[in-house]
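Quick question, first post here. What does this chain look like in 3D?
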Amino acid sequence: MHLKQSITKLKNSISRRSKFMRVLMWMLFMLTAIALVILIVECFRFAGTMTDQGLALRFGRIVFLIGLNVLLTTAVAVVLLLVVWVRTAKSLPELKGWHVEKPESEFCAADAVEGFSLEDYLAQEQRVFDELATLIDNRWESEVNGIFSRYRRDSVCNPETVVGQNWNRTRVLEAENPIGGVLLIHGLSDSPYSLREIGLRLHREGYTVVWLRMPGHGTCPCALANVEWPDWTAAVQVAVGGLKKKLPVGKPLVLAGYSNGGALAMNYALAAIADSTLSRIQAILLFSPMIGINPLARLFRIHHTVALVSRTIKALWSNVDAEVDPFKYSSWPTNASIQAWDMTQEVERQLTFLEKKGRLGEIPPVLAMQSVVDSTVRVPKLISSLFARLQNKTSELFLFDIDRFDQIANLFNLSFEDNVFPNLEGGDLAYQLTILRNARLDSRKVALESRVGSQSFEEVLDVEWPEGIVSLSHIAVPFSASDRLYGNRAATSDTGINFGSISLRGESSALLLSDALFVRCRYNPFYELMENRMVDWLNRAVNSATTLSSVNQSVESFD
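> Answer (accepted):
Ran it through. Tokens below.
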């Protein structure tokens, strides 16, 4: 079926009940107005009652009318929300082929039958990308306008050529004599590229590394609009099993997760404690982990209803932008927010379960690298929900503070402080806390302020905040200044497209690109420091976990 016919069919299917929804909306407004008038009249009559005759009946009627008004007002509020949503949806740019079509061979949880291996996953992934290539070369070819598109073969944004190989794919890099294995799990709408540098460093350290492409990612935004979080957890289990087979017996398994990948890493590690059929994890690396997000994400569950009301499939999207980033979707389907919320709730359920069972002490050591300001995840939730429960002294929370250089201090929005720092006060912490902050307010030079138990110490570094960067962001943490796509163009000799230094001026509505692309920090100016600290911490954590495992095995043998 032709693409335009597919879109027409979808529009027709969601418009059948639109007339009924419009009538319902007007009826609710009318009923609410009538109920409010009756309540006001009844209150005046009640106030004018001079005797007790019929007083109880009138009071009961007022209580009933108050309840009715609350109910109808809530319904009106919901309707108004729908109206705003509909208007916003209709204002979005027109959908392209990659918003309404996707490869049909994508992995889902039902595919992970007994015996399904990492090699099977890779073979299925190959079919997915074969189907994607067919869509790009045929049905989507007429949809591409201009040279900036990840779906145009000769574009500077083509993921097949922009950095030498397509980092939208799962990649396995084996060490000759591995000291352990690391599974890297990228974030929502991202690809394995987001953890490329970290994985390469860990491979140089002697680890066998697997960058896993999560289902629904690396292909087209429509795939993310149809995926569900159990598909991701099933893929992680397959990848951990495949990674373990590539390691000598007894070598440690490590999970590294970025954003939503952090939630998936924690979910697997926690599940492995309760489920003996899953391989245990010895250490966890988290980068801007999605342990908590805005609860308003739950509202997106009604997106199908909004699509019915609006008579447009654009209501299934929160954002529709030009797809210029080769390794990250620019458009955002509402389903992504729903699945992210459900994923965080599953992690919370797992933590609560282990807490009730008294098994929190079995959680492996965790290192989290996090900016104190983050518009994607809730930093206080990371502290209160995860780190406050950890019982392993090896765990560390590493926070990147803002640049508090006093010459620009009056320009900062410091509202985050009331939510983040009170969670770090009090007595001894059960983990190490490290904050990278200004050594002095009259200087951009930074220092590491650390707390271990009740002891605090500071280390002044020969590193400064770069001028023009006031804070890190959710997306910046795992990328270095020399990153080909997201780094500082001055730090790389490459002359291709660079999203870390892109600079365009005009009215914000003039471009099919988000304002965040030009404002949001996209690389970590302290990446080298972070990477070295990560490796040092991982060596300590793995050695500690290996020693503890040996002790437990000895005790079990003695028993």
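The two ends are 67 Å apart (CA to CA).
The chain has three domains: 3-91, 98-364, 481-523.
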